[in-house]
Amino acid sequence: MSHIHLPDGVLPANLWLLSYLAAWLWLRSALRQSEKEAVQRKLPFVAAMSALMLLTMSIPLGPLPFHLNLTVLTGIVVGPWLGFVAVVIVNIILSLLGHGGLTTIGINSLIAGLEVVVGWWLYHRLLHSWRRSWRTLLATGLALLLSISLSLGIVGSSTGMLDLAGHELHLGQDPIAEEQPAATLNVSTTADMGGEQGVIAVKAELLGLTGIGALAGILLAGLGLESLATLGIISYLQKVNPDLLQDEGPDIESGGQR
Amino acid sequence: MSFKLAGIDQLATSHPSFLQKWSSRGKVVGTAVLLLGIVAATNWRQIVVFLNLLVAIVLTAKLPVWLFSLALYPAIFSLPFALSKLSVSVAEAATVVGKATTAALLLALLVASTPYPQIFGALSRVLPPVLTDALFLAYRLFFLVVGSLERLLLSLRQRGAFGKGNFCWSFRVTLHAIGYLIANTLRLSQRLEQNYRLRGYGVRIYWGAEPYVWRMLDLAMLLVLICLVGGVLCFA
After folding, report:
1. In a domain, B203, yes or no
2. Domain at A13-159+210-245: CATH code
3. pLDDT tens string B179-232
4. A56 vs B: CB within 8 A
5. What Rg, from alpha-carbon coordinates, does chain A have?
6. Shortest CB distance from A47 goes to which of B74, B134, B176?
7. What are the residues whose beta carbons fall under 8 Å from the beta carbon of A236, sequence distance 6 or more?
8. In contact, A10 and B78? CB cutoff 8 Å
9. Is residue B113 located within the same domain as residue B135?
């Protein structure tokens, strides 16, 4: 919901190789840290959260181009280190099914892993004394906001669309746009061949919003939905099995119940 | 996707084609060679050659046409990158979408012709053992969770969820259902892992990576692929 599953062949080789290296180092570090937490005993929970993430990522939410991620929830339940392991597992399986790419497992994992770590840190550390509902909403919202920014930054910097965004802010309302259906994606291009490179203007139009407004609207809607969904799930878990939401994660011996 | 995953699993294990007869190690390495070729492609002609090759393989192996639908997601996700290339030329933009789509079709071909324990076995050569175990358990659990979800959805529908006019209630019930699934799946995973231990698996659960000797046929196929990829990249 918060990020694009980057496919193969769209990123420059140095970027995906570098992100592979970074993800590998993070993974090794996560596994080393997790040794202290008896990683072998917590493995079933990592696999379970991976399976659940796979499931929710495969169900679109009605007509919206979103799906739940459950990355922040995974961080809250299994912790930041094992949460990243779960994210890597999900990205490996998804990449084999056309949801992401094999060469982009690294960068996709880094982005989703950021959600896990930031979400866990906000929920269990920084906002620990806050009410649970506010804590959940803020932790999820801020973690997703950060990963959205990173996603957009990567897409923007590798395509030059960051310039485009600035260019788009100066564009006025297009009169033709009013004739379009309310929720369509209207993409137009203009080439300014005066410079060395053409400048492309992309106008995404959704419910009367254009350009950056529409893009921000789509992403914020996704962010809001994921935050609300995480809040709903955590409220339920708090009622039926509050031990799952403890900082040290679910108790192994009792299958998640103390 | 869950149904596609089940369909792919079925194809990989029981579809009779020449791809299933090729060794998993050879297929994985061959896929890697082709993937590198696709990623390194610089113009649409090279992509068209790779795409035609894959389409020909899908058709001659008599794999179902819905396999192509797996390439749709990457096509959508590559659009922002393709749009940025439109200023250069339409061909450049088409190359970007073509690369993402062809790579996805290649991977779909791999998973539709190789049972997942064999893929995980090949991956276990490069991944940490703990990660391979978790991959194996996650894949197994995914199908168990899908089964739980289907039963849960049926019982919720019988109680009037997801009807028109009760959106808020349905949303709340759906979230509670996910919460129930999480609690249930964690218990399920625990039992699954204990079952494996009872069967004698110790620290490592997954032992799919058996010693493998390269056959002449595998090497020949690999050589052909390398020559093909090199030829396409140099001359197309």
Report:
1. no
2. 1.10.1760.20
3. 888 888 888 888 887 887 787 766 566 655 556 677 888 888 889 999 999 988
4. yes
5. 20
6. B134
7. B175, B176, B179, B180
8. yes
9. no
